[in-house]
Amino acid sequence: MIYAQVAYAPRTVTPINASAAKLIGMMMNHRGGKRILMWTACLAHFLICGIVFSVSSGASGQKNFAERWNPTRVPPGVTFVGDKVCAECHEGKAASQARSSMGMAMESIKDSKILTEHQKLAFRNGPYSYEITRKGDQSFYAVTDGKETISLPILFAFGQGKAGQTYVLQYDGAYYESLVSFYNETKGLDFTIGQTRDVPASLLGALGRRLSKSETLSCFGCHATGAVSGSSLHLDKLTLGVKCEACHGPGGGHVAAGKAGEPNAKLIFNPARLGGDELTQDFCAACHRGAGEFASLKGMGVNNVRFQPYRIFNSKCYSDDRRISCAACHDPHEPLNADAAYFDSKCMACHAAGGNTARAAAKPNAQASAPACRVETKNCASCHMPKVELTGAHFKFTDHYIRVVRPNEPYQN
Ligand code: HEC
Ligand code: HEC
Ligand code: HEC
Ligand code: HEC
Ligand code: HEC
Ligand code: HEC
Ligand code: HEC
Predict the structure, then answer these.
(1) Of all atoms in ligand 4, which is nearest to the CA of residue 166?
(2) Is any ligand 1 atom within 6 A of the Cβ of residue 290?
(3) Element (H, E) at 129
(4) Which residue among 160, 308, 319 has the greatest number of ligand 1 atoms within 8 angstroms of its CB, and so is best to mutate?
(5) pLDDT class for 368, splitting at 50, 70, 90?
């Protein structure tokens, strides 16, 4: 998918990382600071990339991770206890998180709902024919030009198909992203987003896109837990999906303290202690991508609608305020809440009530200092966060650039 175009630069968690983030946070406290942020973030990026720090393991290392954890920068040697252990004490969160899209960001081939429900899927591109067929617990991805055929077992299925599902294959020692993906809207195969629609020059080209080592690391770093540490891939340690320790870091010390009756020893990272910017532009943006990558994301045009931290940063609503952070509107432990009233309450945390209720509701909340809407009193997101259909994505993404949308305006980038 499109993400893979930006190379993954493995980094360790460093003191510089934390202070750079704080500096970024300071720069962003007032709106005028936004432009400065971009430069600061770029500068910080180069500084961090240039220097490799080693992180001590053992008890003191655990403590560091409890203060600062970057979900896509897992240092070498870190071990996870696994979400089943977390579920022993956090039963409710574990159950609901497992039903969320993030918890299901990869499917096992054996239990894949999509692959078992569709025993045979087919697609044609010029001289090439594609087929995905089910045989027992496995699914095979085959492409033929009529003379020769490459048929491979599907190793990994990315996404549970809310928008689509893309397959990862192995050929001649290298990983490939399937040229065609399953799309929920059409219940069939079509080109994978970001891949060429031209007729490939060779059968191998028709199979899919060969993933470089860094792309492979970044795919598994965003969709799985425990598969990447340092700059190496450990598929034997992989748990499918974004699970507890992907976001909270290694939990061994916390579990031991919990079992010893000291759960409040602060031995695990809790993002609740992050400021709004840190949470949105650093933590969630580690996978959802944000303002720190301004230059490369802006260049993508409408395709950057998928990068919510980047989009929301453009909005006049946006600041370091926790009420406009990703976690204000989305509980990462729950499936996506699509209820309009739920989101209205989030807007009303800052905006005064509008319409006829304006006078009656004077100062309902001292914090509600942002202006009221003159047009409507409910379903705020339906007008101010429009759905954008990307060509070929078979899915409408929600534009997180909150604003007054003018009729027929071009994409606001
Ligand atoms: C930058 C932090 C952040 C991330 C990451 C994020 N959101 Fe959303 N988000 C929404 C709404 C509304 C939807 C659409 C829900 C629906 O109708 O399905 C949505 C949908 C999504 C989706 C589903 C895909 C899509 O495009 O519909 C993702 C992913 C997402 N948000 C991620 C309101 C918000 C609000 C509320 C002010 C904030 C803040 C917010 N979102 C901040 C964030
Ligand atoms: C032996 C029981 C136990 C196990 C196992 C356990 N926890 Fe906890 N955890 C607790 C208790 C008790 C608290 C404090 C009360 C609360 O916040 O629910 C806590 C608190 C937390 C907090 C907030 C910490 C803070 O400093 O604010 C996080 C985050 C957390 N747990 C994540 C995890 C994760 C991730 C796992 C699996 C790696 C896990 N827990 C396993 C018992 C446990
Ligand atoms: C380790 C990477 C990672 C991190 C960190 C991460 N996400 Fe996600 N998120 C994903 C992936 C991958 C998906 C797509 C899952 C799918 O549909 O298969 C996703 C999907 C979502 C969705 C869409 C849910 C739906 O049903 O459509 C929301 C909302 C979301 N993330 C919010 C957040 C918030 C809030 C944070 C920060 C607290 C966050 N994410 C941090 C990887 C991540
Ligand atoms: C930087 C983190 C990141 C990387 C790298 C990444 N993804 Fe994703 N992926 C996400 C997030 C976040 C979402 C949810 C928002 C969206 O749909 O864009 C997502 C969504 C998807 C979806 C749609 C899921 C659904 O349920 O509809 C598929 C399929 C997918 N990714 C496949 C891949 C493949 C294959 C690779 C590697 C070639 C990859 N991704 C690399 C973060 C990432
Ligand atoms: C996508 C990232 C993500 C995943 C995956 C995730 N969490 Fe969290 N968790 C967060 C964030 C963000 C917060 C802070 C929420 C806030 O500030 O509102 C949090 C807070 C917590 C807390 C503390 C609650 C509090 O009120 O302080 C506990 C306990 C916890 N998570 C447990 C878990 C467990 C158990 C799992 C696995 C089942 C899990 N988390 C998976 C992001 C995640
Ligand atoms: C953290 C507080 C906060 C939250 C939460 C918030 N806003 Fe705002 N919003 C603001 C501020 C501050 C402004 C700028 C007001 C000004 O310029 O006078 C603003 C401006 C706006 C504007 C005018 C933008 C423009 O370009 O002129 C719209 C429309 C808007 N918000 C809608 C929403 C909607 C819809 C939601 C919920 C999905 C929401 N806001 C959530 C604080 C917030
Ligand atoms: C039917 C579509 C629609 C809905 C629903 C809607 N708005 Fe609006 N909103 C608009 C339009 C159109 C404007 C621009 C009006 C103008 O320029 O006179 C606007 C203007 C605004 C402004 C800018 C006000 C100013 O004076 O600068 C804010 C803030 C705002 N809306 C917030 C909200 C909130 C919060 C909600 C939910 C309670 C909401 N809107 C629901 C269409 C809508």
Answers:
(1) 29
(2) no
(3) strand 128-135
(4) 308
(5) low
Reported as a single tens digit per residue, the pLDDT across 319-352 is 999 999 999 999 999 999 999 999 999 999 999 9
CB of 385 closer than 6 angstroms to any ligand 1 atom: yes
How do the domains of the chain map onto residue ranges? 106-210
**Whose Cα sits closest to atom 41 in ligand 3?**
284
> Which atom of ligand 4 lies closest to the CA of 286?
1
Q: Cα separation of 311 and 289, whole Å?
A: 9
User: What is the reported pLDDT for 323?
Assistant: 97
Flag whether pLDDT at 24 surpasses 70: no
Rounded CA separation 301/281 (Å): 19
Give the least confident one: 6-15, 269-278, 387-396: 6-15
| Ligand 6 lined by 402 (C-beta under 6 Å) | yes
Does the beta carbon of 330 lie inside 6 Å of ligand 5?
no
Is 256 buried (19+), middle (13-18) or exposed (0-12) by CB count in 10 A? middle
Q: Which residues pair with 182 in a beta bridge?
A: 165, 189
> Alpha carbon of 27 to those of 32, 280, 360, 366: distances in Å?
9, 15, 38, 26
Residue 101: closest CA among 42, 161, 41: 161
* Reported confidence tier of residue 182, pLDDT bands at 50, 70, 90: very high
Q: Tell me how far the alpha carbon of residue 94 lies from the centroid of ligand 5, in angstroms.
A: 10
What is residue 321's DSSP assignment? -
Q: Is 347 in the pocket of ligand 6 (CB under 6 A)?
A: yes
Q: What is the CA radius of gyration of the chain?
A: 23
Cα 150 from Cα 146, distance rounded (Å): 11
pLDDT at 41 > cutoff 50: no
- Can you state the angle between helices 15-27 and 34-50, rounded to 10 degrees? 170
Q: Where are the alpha helices (DSSP H) in 113-168?
A: 113-117
Distance between CA atoms of 199 and 142, rounded to whole angstroms? Answer: 17
More confidently predicted of 83 and 356: 83
